[in-house]
Amino acid sequence: MFVQALLIAIGLALLLGGGEALVRGASTLARKMGLSEVVIGLTVVAFGTSAPELVVSLAAALEGRGAIAFGNALGSNVANLGLLLGLTALAIPLRVNSKLVSREIPLLVVASLVLLGLALDGLRGATPDRLGRGDGLVLLVLFAIFILANAREVLTRRTDPVVDEATTL
């Protein structure tokens, strides 16, 4: 029992340290490339902090435990939006930028509605209670569109309009 608890503690410490190093290094690299804080947060840091969840979800899916993979993704989003953002706002009031809200929140809502539609496609005659390869492809295409749209906007302007607006407020 003690050995298992020790191994879990060591694993968590390694996970936290590795995640911190990955995020710090990626953020430094992104800043040197001239990317804004918003882009760094939406892409680089998001990739780094989602890496452990990706590993857990892939391992669960490969073992045929899709519910764990789905719950992991859903729980992560609920925790990030509710717990982390909520605690941060309690500690320090957050300034909400109108361009960020008008640009990113609708994408979040659309992605959530698409996922809901894919999850409920059993009502249309598809295999119920299942997200298949086609569903995964749809989600990956939407993700690629989101990343490419952000990259294009930042690269064509070389600044982020959200950050520009925040500095003029």
Note down, in words, how this protein is organized.
The chain has 169 residues and is an all-alpha fold. The protein is 82% helix and 0% strand. The protein contains six helices and no strands. The longest helix is centred in the N-terminal third of the chain and has 31 residues. The N and C termini lie far apart (56 Å). The relative contact order is 0.08.
Q: Give a quick account of the main beta sheet: strands, pairing sense, barrel closure.
A: none
Q: Gyration radius, to the nearest Å?
A: 19 Å
Number of H- or I-type helical stretches: 6
Instruction: Report the principal-axis shape.
Output: globular
Based on helices, strands and strand pairing, what is the structural class? mainly alpha
Note the beta-strand portion.
Answer: under 5%
Mean pLDDT: 79
Overall strand count: 0
Portion of residues in helices? Answer: over 70%
Order of helices and strands: HHHHHH
Low-confidence spans: 165-169
State the distance separating the first and last CA atoms: 56 Å
